[in-house]
Specification:
This protein has helices at about 1-20, 55-60, 80-85, 90-95, 115-120, 135-140, 145-150; strands at about 25-30, 30-35, 40-45, 70, 110, 125, 165. It is α+β, with helices and mostly antiparallel strands. Among the domains are: about 55-110, Membrane-bound Lytic Murein Transglycosylase D, Chain A; about 115-165, Roll (Membrane-bound Lytic Murein Transglycosylase D, Chain A), CATH 3.10.350.10. Strands 1-2-3 form a 3-stranded antiparallel β-sheet, with no helix packed on it. Strands 4-5 form a two-stranded antiparallel ribbon. Strands 6-7 form a two-stranded antiparallel ribbon.
Length: about 170
């Protein structure tokens, strides 16, 4: 009987210690949450539905704010959501707008796509810059990657800064 009580008390002690977690009540994005200080994971405690990054990307302010190839940053916009919405890369978006950090401000106007100069350019060549890829060049000049590779006798997707590519 004594052994039974020792086992029972041991079990109850393990159960009690398993039930006490190291959690803190925190607020994340103005929503209450529980933070597990051991794992770093958190769980929202309100009943609001959490949104996936894809859903958040769809929430970027509508193209009605796109005038003259400009997007006006609205609350909740991120580089990720804007880039996904317009189908351009984050590095391209930052490069077009001469942005070096990851900060956006509400009301800030961002160039989307390519500059007017590049859009109306009737150039027959393109000199590769640091941020260029075959994909970005193909989109800029509306030419397929395979046509670019064929015109320039490229066997791989590798290009280098200063390289002059034929476009026509």
């Amino acid at each position: 009987m004594k052994l039974f009580f020792i086992i029972l008390l041991s079990f109850l002690g393990m159960y009690a210690s398993a039930q006490s977690t190291d959690t803190l009540d925190v607020t994340i994005d103005d929503r209450p949450a529980k933070l597990n200080t051991k794992t770093g994971k958190f769980i929202f405690t309100d009943k609001a539905a959490t949104k996936s990054p894809v859903d958040k990307a769809r929430e970027v302010s509508q193209p009605k704010t796109l005038k003259n190839n400009l997007h006006t940053v609205a609350k909740g916009d991120t580089f990720y959501s804007i880039s996904k919405y317009y189908g351009i890369s984050i590095p391209q978006l930052k490069s077009l707008n001469d942005i070096k950090d990851n900060n956006l401000e509400i009301g800030q106007q961002l160039k989307i796509g390519y500059s007017q100069k590049a859009m109306v350019s009737n150039s027959k060549t393109h000199t590769v810059t640091n941020d260029d890829t075959l994909y970005s060049i193909s989109k800029r000049y509306t030419i397929s990657i395979s046509d670019l590779k064929g015109l320039n006798h490229l066997n791989t997707d590798a290009i280098h800064v200063g390289q002059v590519l034929k476009l026509k």
